[in-house]
Amino acid sequence: MKLSAGNLEEPDVNLTPMIDVVFLLLLFFMVSTSFIRESSLKVDLPQATGQALPDQEKSIDILINADGHFIVNEVTLENPSIEQLSAHLKQAVGENEDPHIIISADANAEYQNIVTAMDTAQQLGYSRLTLATRQTTKDTQ
């Protein structure tokens, strides 16, 4: 019996199916992953450790309560519209072309009310806006 030692082929490993599976896994994880960043830190915006501003000129004070009441230089407005806030702000400013406006908001006030006050002041052309905060001491942090 004669066995031929003919052409022996070396085994060939086909990598195409493995590349397809890895690509499908990558695609699955990309689609199923949530890209929304959620903050786990508690933020208390009305506190700051900066220095207090020196009194320079008479400023316009806008106070925002937690209930949504606006107080523009001691005139109380309950849930005002942008037009009402604009009218009272113009009246409080008077002849001053670029007044210093200080917005003081309660820590529990809605953020939308703060943005409304800032937006109204900027629409009237007032660019000197300050958000008032209470100063914290370093030993309470």
Give the strand order, joined by hyphens, for the main sheet. Answer: 4-3-2-5-6
**CATH fold name of the domain at 63-135, please?**
Nucleotidyltransferase, domain 5
Based on secondary structure, the structural category is alpha/beta
State the separation between the terminal residues, measured CA to CA.
Answer: 94 Å
Q: Quick one: how many beta strands?
A: 7
Number of helices: 3
Determine Rg (CA atoms, Å).
Answer: 32 Å
Shape assignment: rod-shaped
Proportion of residues in helical segments: 25-40%
Do you know the CATH architecture of the domain at 63-135?
Answer: 2-Layer Sandwich
Q: Give start-end ranges of low-pLDDT stretches.
A: 39-45
- What letter string, H or E per element, gives the SSE order? HEEEEHEHEE
Percent strand equals 15-25%
The largest sheet, given as strand count, sense and whether it forms a barrel, is: 5 strands, mixed
What is the residue-averaged pLDDT? Answer: 77
CATH class of the domain at 63-135: Alpha Beta
Task: Please write out the topology.
Blueprint: H1 16-32, E1 47-48, E2 60-64, E3 69-72, E4 75-78, H2 82-93, E5 101-105, H3 111-123, E6 129-132, E7 134-135
Parallel strand pairs: 1-7, 2-5, 5-6
Antiparallel strand pairs: 2-3, 3-4
Helix pairs in contact: 2-3
Can you describe this structure?
By secondary structure, the protein is α/β, with parallel strands linked by helices. It has a domain at 63-135: Nucleotidyltransferase, domain 5 (2-Layer Sandwich), CATH 3.30.420. It has helices at residues 16-32, 82-93, 111-123; strands at 47-48, 60-64, 69-72, 75-78, 101-105, 129-132, 134-135. The chain has a 5-stranded mixed sheet, covered by helices on one side. Strands 1-7 form a two-stranded parallel sheet. A hairpin with a 2-residue loop joins strand 3 (69-72) and strand 4 (75-78). The chain is rod-shaped.
